[in-house]
C-alpha cells in the first residue's frame, strides 16, 4: 500500500520536527508532550517501512525492522531519568546496532572492512570519541563506563558497515545507508557529550540530538527500501 506508506512517512516527518522542537524546550509541558511524540516516532516509521512494497524485496528487510523495534524500546526507556532508564535505553539501542550490523554484513563489500577507508575512520573515531566518552561516563557513574564503551564500539562498527556495502547495490541505497550510519554516530556523540562531557549544554543541544537521530533512522529505512532495486513496471 504505497499510499499508506507515504502518508505514514509524512507523519513521521511531522513527529520528528515536533519532537526535535520539544526536546529543546524547558518545562513539564514539553516533557509530557514528548511522551506522545517520541513514543510514536519509531512505530510510525516502522509502519511506513512495512507497508512499502519494496520492503519485502529488500535484503535489509528483517534487520531494519529489528533495528526499528529496538530503537522504539530505547526511545521509551530514555523518556525516564536516572541511571536505570539510561542503561535500559543504551541496551536497547545496542541491540538495534547489532541488528543493523548483521544486516549490513550480509550485503557487505567483499573487500575487508579493516582495510577500507570506512573501517579506518571508524576506528579513529572510536579512539578519539568513544573511549573519552566512556571515561567521562565512568567518572559520572562507575557502572556506566563499561556499557558506554561497549555501545560506542557497536555504534562505530554499525556506521562503518553502513558505509561498506556491496557496490552491486543501487548507489542511492548505499548513499542513504552510509549517511544514516553517519547521522546515528553524530546523534549519539552529541548525546554523550551532553551527558558526560559538557557541564551545561544549551537547550538546543537536545534538539540537535533528536534532529540527527530521526534523520538517521529515516535514512537507514530509506536505504533499506532502495536496496530492493527499481520497482518492476
Question: How would you explain this protein's 3D organization?
Answer:
- InterPro entries: TMEM86B-like.
- By secondary structure, this protein is mainly α.
- The chain has one domain (2-226).
- It has helices spanning 2-23, 28-51, 61-77, 83-106, 117-140, 144-162, 171-197, 204-226.
- Helix 2 (28-51) runs antiparallel to helix 3, helix 2 (28-51) packs parallel to helix 8 (204-226) and helix 5 runs antiparallel to helix 6 (144-162).
Low-confidence stretches: none
Count of beta strands: 0
Tally of separate domains: 1
What share of the residues lie within helices?
A: over 70%
- Compute the CA-based radius of gyration: 17 Å
Structural class: mainly alpha
Describe the main β-sheet briefly. none
Mean pLDDT over the residues: 92
- What string, H for helix and E for strand, traces the elements in order? HHHHHHHH
In DSSP terms (H or I, runs of 4 or more residues), the helix count works out at 8
Strand content: under 5%
Oligomeric category: single chain
Structure at a glance:
The protein is mostly helical. Helices cover 77% and strands 0% of the residues.
Key descriptive features of the protein:
single chain, 233 residues, mainly alpha, 77% helix, globular
Task: Itemize the secondary structure elements and their pairings.
Blueprint: H1 2-23, H2 28-51, H3 61-77, H4 83-106, H5 117-140, H6 144-162, H7 171-197, H8 204-226
Helix pairs in contact: 1-2, 1-8, 2-3, 2-8, 3-4, 4-6, 5-6, 5-7, 6-7, 7-8
